[in-house]
Amino acid sequence: MRRYPNGGERMRVKLATFCLALALCGCGNTTVQTPTSINNQQSTVASAVKAVADADSAAVTTVISLRDQGKLSQPNTNTIENWLALVATTDKSIAAILGNGQPWAQQKSSILVLLATTTAPTIATTIDPGAQAVITQVVTLLNAVKVQVAP
Amino acid sequence: MNPWLALVLQLEPMVPGLIGDIKSIFTKHNITDPAQQTALIQSLVNAAMSTDDDTLAKIAADQKAHGG
């Protein structure tokens, strides 16, 4: 029998099951527009874009915490925050592309161009390991998006 | 937008990861209807943009407070 370590996860599973039941019961209407092409890559990229958003948000919290603990200088904090802001802006732009209804081939090309601007800051290898870890995590997730849209 | 999807979007901020769970269920049960897939992608897109907006606001507030 599966055990849940905390009530939050159990609640999430219950809510997910409830929402699925609603969907399967046909409670939804049919007003959602259907683009001409949907494929697994689009779905995978959409999931990855959400994962980047979550990781980026968590990274900001971590960096601020490290700075407040005296483990990260203010200039380095600013540098990392500026990069995380760039990632958030890029991630938003990618999300907008995914929702624009254009053919996937066109969306892929536009997303690939955007990802070229998100190179990690050069201080990434010289700062507190905790800050390095969050930067690495965001970079890894961005690369996951890049793999899906690479030609 | 489907009422159930609206509910998921409403609950996502309070139950982080809910949309991911829904996606897993879609995959597990092989729900391949294009309209539902489109709705799922749109829900992920909307959730990502909302999170990114929150992140940008958090960074702006911190930099304002610390002279960044």
Notes on the structure:
The complex is a heterodimer of chains A (151) and B (68). Chain A is globular and about 50 Å long. Chain A has helices at residues 7-24, 40-68, 74-98, 104-115, 129-149. Chain A has 5 helices and no strands. Chain A is an all-alpha fold and 151 residues long. Chain B contains 3 helices and no strands. Chain B has helices at 3-11, 18-28, 34-66. Chain B starts with a helix and ends with a helix. The mean pLDDT of chain B is 77. At the A-B interface, helix 1, helix 2 and helix 3 of A face helix 1, helix 2 and helix 3 of B.
How is the quaternary structure best described?
Answer: heterodimer
Give the end-to-end Cα distance of chain B, rounded to a whole number of Å: 41 Å
Helix tally of chain B? 3
**Biggest sheet of chain B, open or closed, and with what strands and sense?**
none
Total helix count of chain A? 5
Roughly what percent helix of chain B? over 70%
Overall 3D form of chain B: elongated
Low-confidence runs of chain A (pLDDT<50, min 5 residues)? 22-37
The dominant shape of chain A is: globular
Number of strands of chain A: 0
- Element pattern of chain B in H and E: HHH
Using the CA coordinates, give the radius of gyration of chain A: 19 Å
Query: Could you tell me the number of beta strands of chain B?
Result: 0
Strand proportion of chain B, as a percent range, falls in under 5%
Q: Main beta sheet of chain A, described? A: none
Order of helices and strands of chain A: HHHHH
**Overall pLDDT confidence of chain B:** 77
The end-to-end distance of chain A, rounded to whole angstroms, is: 44 Å
